[in-house]
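Our consortium's second objective concerns turning raw sequence data into structural hypotheses that experimental partners can test. To show how far this objective has progressed, the report includes one record in full. It was chosen at random from the queue rather than selected for favorable results. The single chain below, 296 residues long, was entered without modification.
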Amino acid sequence: MKPSRRTYHEGSVAVQIRVGVREAAEHVGRSVGPDIRPVAAAFLALQPMLVIGAADKAGRVWSSLLTGAPGFARATGATTVLVVGGVPAHDPLGTAFPEGDRTPVGTIALDPRTRRRMRLNGTATPGPRGLSIDADEVFSNCPKYLQKRELLGRDDTAHSGTPHHGDRLTPAQRSRVRAADTFFLATLGPDGTADASHRGGNPGFVQVVSPTELAWPDYRGNAMFLTLGNLESDARAGLLFIDWDTGTTLQLCGTARTHYGDEARTVRFSIEHVVETEGASPLRWSPPEFSPAHPG
């Protein structure tokens, strides 16, 4: 199977050429297709959480966390997935899926217990049971930069708090970002498609430049450069930080640009909107076992 034109648009190709991984990217791209294979369907059905990325009605890009009992996100056909319950109304993406419309989405199912992840991009349509997603791209990534965590349990007595909105990080939020070892990143392609990806590193790998600006290194990955490729043509992005102990989420919306050095790349993110929701997730996770792939 040849990589589809959808998989590598001009932005991704430009980054691949610049970094010198075009041939490797072509090889990796052969595994991308719309089919949800049995092993992928089985993996998805075991997951208690799913990260989804999309643009809201105002065009702002967000990355959101969805949770449920295993099976709440499951394959319902060779190229379709049902996410029971959809996106909560209080979430920034709560109104991003109008009835009768097909909205581009990127999703990533990440299992900290096994350090495995699966990405599925396509279009979502709301229905009586939740979101139905028609897949265009389904693929897995290696466990590089993923922290291992055990699921300690669910706190189903806790209820998601009222989201707190702002346009800059508070001191407590800045401390949380500095301590983070994982975050999720949503971007849009030049054709309006959406993608959701993962970034991981040792605590401190995300630098708080100011209350309205973050920076992080772009580590060597799978050579596809889907995220950086998207940012070449559309700077809009959404970040999601999860407090694995308490379930609190921190969602940031803004724009991102990649700065290329002689041997390294750095992404700088300008914050426009901040949403913090206490107890957004009922899942409680153990402290991390850090990936051995992290630089330094």
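The partners drew two points from this record. The domain at 10-285 is CATH 2.30.110.10 (Pnp Oxidase; Chain A). Residues 1-5 have pLDDT under 50 and may be disordered. Both points have been shared with the crystallography group to help prioritize constructs.
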